């Protein structure tokens, strides 16, 4: 059974067997900003073994895409068998148990074996040593249970093999590629070093294996042909009931450590683990989110979401050229390790309020890819900077133009590469939000203003004048709703591009902003003043239309009864989505209008937001994990607190509850987790900036007793506790800060404490 736990609270997720082993290994993923490691999960299937280790920045020419993150081998337990006969130990008794302890950032597994009437228990505890080091420690214990019926000498092989591979587009196991080969190695008695040569990198694995607590075992390391290196630990159970082993391994890129370094010195796994636990205690004290409710799954879900986000971001100095945030982090090769707009609209929003340096690193990646964005704009007939819909490690478009299906031999066209035009505006939204929250003027002068200007230049070149509309239009695009393409005047796209223009124009007179010729400024203003936005009337209220002509499409079956996972009405809808078909009805994958209203809540009246939410939500499949967070935000703003709480739970528990269990390959949906945080903090707590000050409009769902979270705001770490509707407490350290009710129902810090 896979169990997630935080302190005394725990929840069983799934029984572990070959078909679920890939899902369990993914959910129990361990990571830091440098590496993502699948922990030891018993009954591993071939698909489970294909994904072992991902290293940040290690990419290669891809299968079906120009670039993909490489699935690399990781040192692990390979075999357990009788020394004298070679007979493997067989699983025995109850199924294996794996526990992810989120408060400790460790994964422990336990499984029972038997050999000729003798039972054994194997336990493995694993953790990543530090957030700024690609190092992993493992404790292994093998215990003989009960009275022996014979004397056994057992051997455990621990090492590196070559079963890690990339699947086509990260999900199709019928086409795989191996982007590495084993190179030079050095072997000592209890340690080995092996080079792994990838297409553009040389990685060096330094592996140490030590026995502890008994002299009745021995360690021998040896080279195993083309399949890497192995450390064999021989354990004599004639007089000893338990053998304990500690392993420690590090992967360095491009020979950062010389080979002899791995074979010298000792490591103290007890000290390393103590430091690891202290570090995570501090991390949780600074970032913990707690929901007090009788529904413990809600609290464990939000803690799981926080844990995976924190793993991927906290504790490492960002690289000079910024940080690429793959859509699935370092948990899967799905989407080939490319980044999408959800980084800016969800993950960036989380980090801006938790660790602003991480948010800046994500934006820095876009800045250092500005020239590639300019090239992409020119190549597609535009000006300025066009950031790709799917950007790879080199900042270039990485989405597939066609998708091959097998064995049907069907080729499907993927239009998002050409038709998604809102990404540059999304990047500008993150830049503006970062500036607004942090007040980092130096960042804006050094790069932020340039990014805004280049993206505005792109936006201006996208709009075309329509004589029939007497307005500027954008034709044949795809918005965030991927069920409809070749559409004209996507409300989301037109609105975001117009906002991008207006943002740049509002800064023209600001010191440090690059100059804008007066003629160009006037032209941009004319475009911004005359952008066509489609509207429809619903129940007497005029609301944004998903895109021009959407309302004329045949209506769809309304999703009134909320079911587990995506809300497909029938198998035909599901197949259409899987086949990337252009839907001919009003069903949407994720509602662009709800997303837009979550981003600009003050731009739409309460009546418009309510009518739009009640119109679009029943027509939304929520197939995308990105859908739940924005719906949680808007529902909260409308006072639909129970609905908001449900969307928060769905977002935070997306992988725990909704993803397939059989041969899972998709990875963890980190932006859904960030969306859950947004639903809680930006939605229910009503977090905003008013007159450059923190402000809240807190709401408490009926079946919640309270909820708590932390924020970092301009150098201050604040603990927020919502204890009722319009009731909250703000603490800094151990001190409660006085609050007052301000304009529009906001609660702010009292003057003198801001």
Which ranges are low-confidence, i.e. pLDDT below 50, for 5 or more consecutive residues?
none
Tell me the span between the first and last alpha carbons: 48 Å
Let me know the largest β-sheet.
11 strands, mixed
Oligomer: single chain
Domain unit count = 2
InterPro entries: 6-hairpin_glycosidase_sf, 6hp_glycosidase-like_sf, Glyco_hydro_65_C, Glyco_hydro_65_M
Pfam family, one: Glyco_hydro_65m
Protein name: Glycoside hydrolase family 65 protein
Domain Glycoside hydrolase family 65 central catalytic: 303-678
Description:
- This protein is an alpha+beta fold and 754 residues long.
- The protein has two domains: 2-281, Glycoside hydrolase, family 65, N-terminal domain (Beta-galactosidase, Chain A, domain 5, Distorted Sandwich); 369-621, Glycosyltransferase (Alpha/alpha barrel).
- Helix content is 31%, strand content 28%.
- It has 20 helices and 37 strands.
- The relative contact order is 0.09.
- The mean pLDDT is 92.
Summarize the structure.
It comes from Pseudomonas atacamensis. With 754 residues, this protein is α+β, with helices and mostly antiparallel strands.
């Amino acid at each position: 059974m896979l169990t997630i736990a935080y302190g005394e609270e725990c929840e069983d997720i799934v029984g572990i067997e070959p078909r679920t082993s890939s899902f369990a290994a993914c959910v129990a993923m361990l990571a830091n900003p440098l590496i993502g490691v699948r922990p030891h999960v018993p009954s591993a299937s071939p698909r489970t073994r294909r994904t072992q280790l991902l290293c940040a920045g290690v990419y290669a020419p891809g299968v079906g895409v120009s670039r993909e993150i490489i699935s690399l081998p990781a040192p692990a337990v390979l075999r357990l068998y009788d020394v004298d006969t070679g007979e493997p130990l067989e699983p025995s008794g109850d199924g294996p148990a794996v526990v992810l302890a989120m408060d400790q950032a460790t994964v422990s597994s336990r499984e029972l074996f038997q050999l000729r009437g003798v039972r054994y228990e194997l336990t493995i505890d694993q953790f990543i040593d530090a957030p700024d080091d690609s190092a992993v420690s493992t404790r292994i214990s093998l215990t003989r249970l009960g009275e022996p019926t014979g004397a056994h000498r057992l051997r455990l092989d621990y090492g590196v093999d070559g079963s890690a591979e990339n699947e086509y587009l990260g999900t199709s196991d019928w086409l795989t590629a191996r982007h590495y080969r084993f190179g030079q190695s050095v072997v000592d008695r209890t340690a080995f070093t092996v080079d792994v040569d990838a297409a553009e990198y040389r990685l060096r694995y330094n592996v140490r294996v030590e026995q502890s607590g008994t002299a009745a075992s021995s360690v021998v390391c040896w080279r195993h042909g083309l399949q890497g290196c192995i450390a064999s630990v021989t354990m004599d159970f004639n007089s000893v009931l338990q053998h304990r082993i500690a392993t420690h391994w590090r992967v360095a890129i491009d020979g950062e450590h010389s080979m002899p370094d791995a074979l010298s010195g000792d490591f103290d796994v007890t000290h390393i683990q103590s430091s690891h636990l202290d570090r995570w205690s501090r991390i949780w004290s600074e970032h913990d989110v707690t929901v007090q409710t009788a529904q413990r799954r809600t609290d464990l879900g939000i803690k799981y979401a926080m844990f995976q986000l924190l793993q991927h971001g906290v504790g490492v100095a960002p690289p000079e050229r910024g940080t690429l945030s793959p859509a699935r982090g370092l948990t899967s090769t799905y989407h080939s390790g490319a980044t999408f707009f959800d980084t800016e609209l969800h993950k960036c929003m989380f980090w801006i309020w938790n660790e602003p340096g991480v948010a800046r690193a994500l934006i820095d990646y876009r800045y250092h890819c500005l020239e590639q964005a300019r090239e992409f704009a020119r190549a597609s007939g535009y000006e300025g900077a066009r950031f790709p819909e799917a950007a790879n490690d080199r900042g270039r478009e990485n989405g597939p133009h066609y998708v091959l299906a097998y064995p049907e031999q069907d080729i499907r066209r993927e239009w998002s590469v050409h038709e998604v035009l809102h990404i540059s505006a999304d990047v500008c939204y993150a830049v503006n939000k970062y500036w607004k929250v942090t007040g980092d003027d130096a960042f804006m002068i050094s790069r932020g203003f340039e990014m805004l200007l280049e993206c505005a230049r792109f936006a201006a070149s996208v709009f075309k004048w329509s004589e029939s509309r007497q307005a500027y239009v954008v034709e044949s695009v795809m918005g965030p709703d991927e069920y409809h393409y070749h559409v004209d005047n996507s409300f989301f796209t037109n609105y975001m591009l117009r906002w991008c223009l207006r943002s740049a124009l509002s800064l023209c007179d600001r010191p440090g902003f690059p100059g804008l010729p007066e003629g160009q400024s006037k032209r941009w203003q004319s475009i911004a003043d005359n952008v066509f936005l489609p509207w429809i009337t619903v129940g007497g209220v005029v609301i944004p239309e998903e895109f021009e002509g959407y309302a004329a499409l045949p209506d769809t079956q309304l999703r009134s009864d909320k079911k587990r996972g995506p809300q497909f009405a029938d198998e035909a809808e599901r197949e259409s989505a899987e086949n990337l078909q252009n839907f001919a009805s009003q069903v949407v994958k994720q509602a662009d209008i709800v997303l837009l209203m979550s981003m600009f809540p003050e731009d739409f009246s309460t009546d418009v937001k309510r009518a739009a939410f009640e119109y679009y939500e029943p027509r939304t499949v929520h197939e995308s994990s990105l859908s739940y967070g924005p719906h949680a935000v808007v529902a909260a703003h409308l006072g639909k607190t129970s609905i908001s709480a449900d969307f928060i739970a769905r977002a935070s528990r997306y992988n725990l509850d909704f993803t397939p269990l059989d041969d899972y390959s998709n990875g963890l949906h980190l932006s859904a987790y960030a969306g859950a945080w947004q639903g809680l903090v930006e939605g229910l707590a009503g977090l905003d900036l008013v007159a450059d000050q923190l402000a809240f409009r807190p709401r408490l769902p009926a079946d919640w007793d309270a909820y708590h979270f932390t924020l970092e705001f301009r150098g201050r770490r604040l603990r927020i506790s919502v204890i009722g509707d319009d009731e909250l407490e703000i603490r800094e350290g151990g001190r409660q800060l006085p609050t007052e009710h301000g304009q529009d129902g906001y609660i702010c810090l009292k003057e003198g404490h801001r």
